[in-house]
Amino acid sequence: MTPTTVVFETASLADAFRRAQRVAPARGGALTQLGGFMMEVGSERVLLRATDGDVFLSQFLDPHSITGPQAAWRIPSQVATKLVTSLPGGQGQEVTVTGDGSSVILTQGRMTATVGLMDHTLYPAFRPEPIPEAAQRVDGFGTLLDRIAWAASRKEAMANSSILVTEQHLVAATQNGVAMIPHPELSLPGGQSLVSLATVSTILAHMPDVALWLDDNAMYVAPSPNVQARCRLWAEQFPTYTKATSREFGASVLLQGEEIGAILTRLRAVVEREKEGSHVWLTLGDGQMTFQAADSDGTAAVTDEMELVTGMAAHQRVTFRVAADVLSSALGKTPGEQLVMRYDLAGGQMLRIDGQGGYSCWIPLIRQK
């Protein structure tokens, strides 16, 4: 069998593999049918496809050269991505991919790696669609998604892993909290759509201008002519979130975004090595705001105090307990140099954080033991 050999710019292939890896399932029952990604080698271009069953990502790649017959390779995504992204990717660096039907061989300099192929006959057949003339051009759509996607679940299917696109807002809601942000005016049949967009938020985060269009089953997102994601529309009920968003709060403090960023960095240094269950205690009162966190075995702890504007938190001290990862995501993704945190003096069940551009999020408090 005549092998097929493709020579890529290393940095370009690494970027494409990173995007595909974010969509391809890494474990579970979906691996047999959906695991890995498809690399289809044509006479001049390569089509890289990945899906988790809800999001279908297609990327056209322009390699430096292609020799040999056309080929279809289903490549294990995790090992291939780790190999390619670990290679030197500076200007002029190339990686060669050669396939013989049962495996692909990656070579660069003195490095040679062989990766066995998966059965490509089981992989879903989908192709990118031409961008229609009626597609909407939306600037900053990926950035908006990235602001709220932390509140969507990546482990659950259907509604909890989706983004609600209403006439005015993008909304994510799970037990982790609620996040919403205004969007540019989108034309949506029926006024709103529930879309599997959370998975592609990191892919689109740094792609400023995207083309959007819908059919009866999906929203199509194309950040470039070479990259397209088909995101499934769901008919399921979106998690109830209006109870949180209609909640009244009795007190608020003004937070400086730069200072919050530094405090979050120090908190993460203590709690991010915990697999789950790590918490942060927030104490407000007597004109002060204090953050406290510790790891589970007591080997590391941090206490950090934020300077507040005179007159704020001028009440008796009240302490809140919040999941560390949720607080970090909520504060870290809130845009603006100044943030407003709203809370109840009686404790309550949630905190609200408001940022620039109409962004708001609500995070649940954990009952203190």
Q: What can you tell me about this protein's structure?
A:
By secondary structure, this protein is an alpha+beta fold. 18% of the residues lie in helices and 38% in strands. It has eight helices and 25 strands. The strands form three sheets. It has a 16-stranded antiparallel β-sheet that branches. A five-stranded antiparallel β-sheet has the order 5-1-7-8-9. Strands 21-20-19-22 form a four-stranded antiparallel β-sheet. A hairpin with a 2-residue loop joins strand 8 and strand 9. Helix 1 (10-23) runs antiparallel to helix 3 (77-85) and helix 7 (257-271) runs antiparallel to helix 8 (324-333). The N and C termini lie far apart (67 Å). The model has no long low-confidence stretch (mean pLDDT 88).
Chain-wise SSE layout:
Blueprint: E1 4-9, H1 10-23, H2 31-34, E2 37-41, E3 46-51, E4 55-61, E5 65-67, E6 71-75, H3 77-85, E7 94-99, E8 103-108, E9 111-116, E10 136-139, H4 141-148, E11 163-165, E12 169-174, E13 177-182, E14 193-195, H5 201-204, E15 209-214, E16 218-224, E17 227-234, H6 242-245, E18 251-256, H7 257-271, E19 279-285, E20 288-294, E21 301-307, E22 318-323, H8 324-333, E23 338-343, E24 350-354, E25 360-364
Antiparallel strand pairs: 1-5, 1-7, 2-3, 2-6, 3-4, 4-17, 7-8, 8-9, 10-15, 11-12, 11-14, 12-13, 13-25, 14-17, 15-16, 16-17, 18-23, 19-20, 19-22, 20-21, 23-24, 24-25
